[in-house]
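Newbie here. two chains, one complex. Structure please?
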Amino acid sequence: DAKTTQPNSMESNEEEPVHLPCNHSTISGTDYIHWYRQLPSQGPEYVIHGLTSNVNNRMASLAIAEDRKSSTLILHRATLRDAAVYYCILRDTDKLIFGTGTRLQVFP
Amino acid sequence: DSGVTQTPKHLITATGQRVTLRCSPRSGDLSVYWYQQSLDQGLQFLIQYYNGEERAKGNILERFSAQQFPDLHSELNLSSLELGDSALYFCASSPRGLVSGEQFFGPGTRLTVL
């Protein structure tokens, strides 16, 4: 499974945009880029995924570099509820291989 | 609420014992996954079942086993428990187990081995 690299932690203020980076230089052509998050005391929760093009949904946007070696999860307006560990996962099989993720802190 | 249920929520047992964790996937989902989350190892994939058949195996110990029943619920059996098995165990489900698909996670079972 290809590896991803994320910062250990990031901070944001409420209502500000947040850009969470992920490097995946060994990505293969068939790898999907998935983002999950885990809120305190809860199971992981799907956020968004993409293959080559940028993607938007009600939770976030995913910007994928043209060479696909990096991607950025964008939360347009952070809320306190967005404080969580965010995992960037490359997926070429059914299973999810979680790394250590980025712990996002959101301040009022 | 993801629609995935797990029982029990908490389980406290002693070393050497055997426990069974239960997972009910979302209605209609054919694929069930088990994950273990411990402080030192993070979230690790254990095993996947698809429509009753084992599809993929991860870092699952030989002391652990799982199965998926005809009604699609799944059970994870942990035997000869050790202190290091203390962890959160999550079950997830997805409609067809596609690479591009979303997995829905349950709230987890917290296992404490004393």
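Moderator note: Residues 51 and 72 of chain B are 7 Å apart (CA to CA). Chain B touches chain A through 28 residues (CB under 8 Å). Thread marked as resolved.
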